[in-house]
Amino acid sequence: MKYSQKTYEGALASLAELREQSTSDSERTTIDFIAEAVAEKADRDVLGLEPQTCEQLQAAAPRWISVNEALPESPFTVVLAIVYASNGHLTFNGACQLVTYDPTDGWYLDDYPAEFERITVTHWMPLPEPPEEVVVDAKPE
């Protein structure tokens, strides 16, 4: 059954009041659980938001892509990759590293000297988009 936004607001207000009056942690935990369920149902009924299924969440999650399957499309794309490389002093053996891919020249280890002559990447994944809501004041103090 669907209810109006006003009904949900009243139910959540009543639960908040009941929580304030409760004397045990167990009661407060139960009330919090019920309030969360009511809020989720309100989102579905009032806002039309549907919960995501496991399949939808898995499809949206980044996944490792084999280099035999595909390579990054844009030149100089920075990705997270599984790297095997050595320069005689430092060895990466299946390490997760930030790397840059250039279709002409191949893979580059970011933040490491160019002396790595042979870099083997087996899998990669794109970096996620940065969050939009974060605002940082980068001015020096």
General description of the model:
The protein has a 5-stranded antiparallel sheet, with no helix packed on it. Strand 3 (91-102) and strand 4 form a beta hairpin. The longest helix has 23 residues, at 25-47. The mean pLDDT is 81. It has 3 helices and 5 strands; from the N terminus they run H-H-H-E-E-E-E-E. It has helices spanning 5-21, 25-47, 54-60, and strands at residues 65-66, 77-86, 91-102, 106-109, 119-126. With 141 residues, it is of the alpha+beta class. It is elongated. Helix 1 packs antiparallel against helix 2.
What's the quick description here?
The protein is 33% helix and 26% strand. It has helices spanning 5-21, 25-47, 54-60; strands at residues 65-66, 77-86, 91-102, 106-109, 119-126.
List its salient traits.
5 strands, alpha+beta, 141 residues, single chain, five-stranded antiparallel sheet
Tell me the strand order in the biggest sheet: 1-5-2-3-4
Strand count = 5
- Estimate the strand proportion: 25-35%
Profile the largest sheet: 5 strands, antiparallel
Q: Could you tell me the radius of gyration in angstroms? A: 25 Å
Instruction: Give helix % range.
Output: 25-40%
User: What overall geometry do the principal axes of the alpha carbons give?
Assistant: elongated
Helix/strand order, N-terminal first: HHHEEEEE
Q: Helix- and strand-based class? A: alpha+beta
Mean pLDDT score, rounded?
81
Ranges with pLDDT <50 over ≥5 residues?
none
Question: What is the straight-line distance between the termini?
Answer: 56 Å
